[in-house]
Amino acid sequence: MKTLVLLGAGGHGRVVADAAVMAGWRDVVFLDDGFGSRDTNGVWPIVGPLVKWREMAAQCDLFVSVGDNGTRLRLFKELASAGVSLPRIVHPSAVISAHSSIEAGTVIMAGAILQAFAAIGAAGIVNTGATVDHDCRLDNAVHLSPGAHLAGTVSVGERSWIGMGANVRQGINIGADVMVAAGATVVNDVADRTTVMGVPAAPSKRIGSNS
Ligand SMILES: CC(=O)SCCNC(=O)CCNC(=O)[C@H](O)C(C)(C)COP(=O)(O)OP(=O)(O)OC[C@H]1O[C@@H](n2cnc3c(N)ncnc32)[C@H](O)[C@@H]1OP(=O)(O)O
């Protein structure tokens, strides 16, 4: 297998690296703009700043491991438009229906479950133990946090973040750039750029950061 180059050397990056090793990559390195002041992320080396991807692209697999949804999607699009090889990373303990789909640049973490006809967009994160049930549609750069659960036929718009342990009722449409708070239960559709929290989830006057 080619060397895997991860763009973004934070905590999320370490979990992506670990999943990638479990999925079969042997050599994993990071690029990060903190290069110079840090030279490792966990047990993996940081070998240069982000821009170095251009000189590594021909020989390596590249993957954006930035947690912030907007930044991750912007970098993913930059790489994709340069024609770079952009894998999916699926932890071997995830349960993935043969009738589901996962676009490039997405990571599926340990213990996650994708049910039949679930469709996951590009540059997404389906985090530890999250479940996506039948016929759900996740647009690009959605982050489904650890232990979040989507019932059947839920749609989630671009760059939205579903917090830890949140639950979404079947058939719900969640817009783009939405923040669903940790532990919320969503029983009504959610408009673009809204933060919802609580059980049942209601819009919050305070806007949380979507990162
Ligand atoms: C592997 C990983 O680590 S992946 C990362 C997973 N992380 C998550 O899922 C975290 C998701 N983020 C949250 O739930 C955040 O609390 C947010 C975005 C909803 C709110 O964040 P902030 O805007 O910083 O809000 P802040 O912490 O200042 O709290 C504002 C108010 O909302 C309340 N509040 C915050 N989060 C929640 C929540 N999840 N549910 C209910 N109420 C909440 C606070 O108690 C506070 O109430 P108060 O004004 O009465 O004191």
Q: How does this model look, in words?
A:
Belongs to the transferase hexapeptide repeat family. Pfam families: PglD_N. Substrate binds at residues 32-33, 67. This protein is α/β, with parallel strands linked by helices. The chain has two domains: 4-87, 3-Layer(aba) Sandwich (Rossmann fold), CATH 3.40.50; 88-210, UDP N-Acetylglucosamine Acyltransferase, domain 1 (3 Solenoid). Helix content is 14%, strand content 27%. It is built from three helices and 24 strands. The protein has helices at 11-23, 53-56, 69-81, and strands at 4-7, 28-31, 40-41, 44-48, 61-64, 89-90, 95-96, 101-102, 107-108, 113-114, 119-120, 125-126, 131-132, 137-138, 143-144, 149-150, 155-156, 161-162, 167-168, 173-174, 179-180, 185-186, 195-197, 202-203. The chain has an eight-stranded mixed sheet, with helices on one face. The longest helix is centred in the first third of the chain and has 13 residues, at 11-23. It is globular.
How would you summarize the topology of this molecule?
Elements: E1 4-7, H1 11-23, E2 28-31, E3 40-41, E4 44-48, H2 53-56, E5 61-64, H3 69-81, E6 89-90, E7 95-96, E8 101-102, E9 107-108, E10 113-114, E11 119-120, E12 125-126, E13 131-132, E14 137-138, E15 143-144, E16 149-150, E17 155-156, E18 161-162, E19 167-168, E20 173-174, E21 179-180, E22 185-186, E23 195-197, E24 202-203
Parallel strand pairs: 1-2, 1-5, 2-4, 6-9, 7-10, 8-11, 9-12, 10-13, 11-14, 12-15, 13-16, 14-17, 15-18, 16-19, 17-20, 18-21, 19-22, 21-23
Antiparallel strand pairs: 3-4, 23-24
Bound molecules: acetyl coenzyme *A.
Acetyl coenzyme *A is lined by residues 127, 145-146, 163-164, 179, 181-183, 195, 197-198, 206, 208.
